[in-house]
Structure formats: C-alpha cells, structure tokens
Amino acid sequence: MNDLRTTAAATGPEHAETERLRQALAEAAYSITPSPPPLAAVERWGRRIRRRRRAAVLGAGCGLLLVPLAVVVLRGTEPGAARATSPAAPASVSPSPSASSTAPAPTPRVVAPGEHVTAAPGFELWLTAEGKHWTTPSSPEPQFRGVVDGNIDRNTPGVSVQGESEDGRGYLSGLYYGGKGTASSVEVETADGTVRGKLIELPGNPGWGVWYAIADLTSGEDPFHLDTRVTVHDTEGGVYARSGPR
Question: What is the pTM of this model?
Fold first, then answer.
C-alpha cells in the first residue's frame, strides 16, 4: 500500500487508480482454479474428423472405379459391340425341305395366237384358232394341220404325228385332243428309244394342243417307223391321249 501511495503521490491520482484495478484483477485471476482440459472430447472429435476424411477419400476412389465400369457397360450396349456373356447354346437348324414328291405336274406352255415357238433352228411352230402351223429345216415353207376342217374328232382322245428327218435328226410334231383332265407331258417311242417332247396350247382351254420333239436317229431308221408311238400324259399321271401304231 505504501508503494501505491508513493506511486500515486509520484504520478497522480489517475495513475494510482489504474494500478489498483490491475492488482485487483491479478488477485482475482490467481484465485481462479482452471478446469482440466477436455482431452477425451478433443480426441473423439479428432477421430470423427479422420473417419469423415477417409470416407470421403474412399467414396471418391469408388467413384473413379465405377466410371470405367460404366463406360464398359455403355460400350457393351452399343450396336455391334461384343457382349461379354457366356456363349449361347447353338440354335437348332431345321434341314431345308427337299423337293416334295407331290410337286405340281407340269402343264402345257400357253402361247398367243400366231406366236412362234422355235424348237430348233428352222423348226418353228405356231398356233391359230384353225390349227397347227410349222416349218422344218428341209421344208421352210409353212405347213398346216387343221382342227376345224373335220379331219379330227376333238370329242375322242387322239394324237396325230407329222415329221421330217434331216442329217440324222427327226423333227416330230402333231396334234393332241379329246382327252380328259389337263395334258402334262409327252413321250415319243422311236426305233432309237423314247424321246420326251413339249406341249403348247392356246389360252382358254381350247381342248386341243400341239406336241413337238427332236429325235437323234442314230440307227438310221425312219422316224415314222411302225414302232413309233406318241403318248400324252395328264397331270394325274394317266393317259390323256395316245397314237396307235402307224
């Protein structure tokens, strides 16, 4: 106290008041006992911060890993991309159906009136409502066989035969008519074997048509040998019309 008075006397009343406040504050501070620091709480808080940081780092790492996977998946879904899947079981392949034995039978070629059909060079045929017209290499002038002049009976099945030979080949043709059903094919029996020919008709199912064939005459026999026979079959495999021995 003497010091305060001495200091107050030396420095003035204001300075002495300041010193008294300082000493009072110092004494109050010395009388306060500080509480122990909350070390456990600080440690828990620090651990929480570290866990959050690790979780954030792991989340970022997983996100980086998922990006390539997502790219792979997206690429796999693009058109034409190879799929990483297990191979599928091979699909069963049905054998291609073979030609059916019940395929429709052939029918005559339908030609327009006056339409020329070339069977071989110089051997041409054409049909009109009056009958059959044709030429052969040895007879280039048109020949004619009528169907409306009374020479044939179209109500009775029959086959006519006309033909010429030249250079070892026979040019054979004729009319067929009067059969039941639909004509399909023709066979010509010659001294050199059986020859298959073709059929032509006018449109509208006229009830008659023309057959023609070319025969190689290796034996030198006349194509109109007595053994020559022409058979026109129908679409059911039966006989539509047949010529008798000549």
Answer: 0.58
Tens-digit pLDDT profile for residues 158-209 = 999 998 988 888 899 999 999 999 999 999 998 778 999 999 999 998 999 9
Q: 109-242 maps to which CATH number?
A: 2.60.40
Distances (CA, A) of 133 to 38, 80, 210: 129, 65, 10
User: 166, 167, 171, 158: which is closest to 230 by C-alpha?
Assistant: 158
Domain ranges in the chain are 1-32, 42-80, 109-242
SS3 of the chain: helix, strand, coil, percent, to 5 = 25, 30, 40
| Sheet of 239-242, strands arranged across | 193-196, 183-190, 229-234, 239-242
In whole angstroms, give the CA distance from residue 240 to residue 170.
Answer: 24
Three-state DSSP at 86 gives coil
Given a contact cutoff of 8 angstroms between Cβ atoms, the answer to whether 175 and 209 are in contact is: yes
pLDDT tens readout for residues 25-63: 777 666 666 666 666 766 776 777 777 766 655 555 555
Tokens of 147: 């169907």
> Among residues 231, 167, 211, 219, which one has the least CA distance to residue 191?
219
Q: What's the full length of the chain, in residues? A: 246
Residue 72 sits at the vertex; the CA angle it makes with 71 and 77, to the nearest 5 degrees, is 95
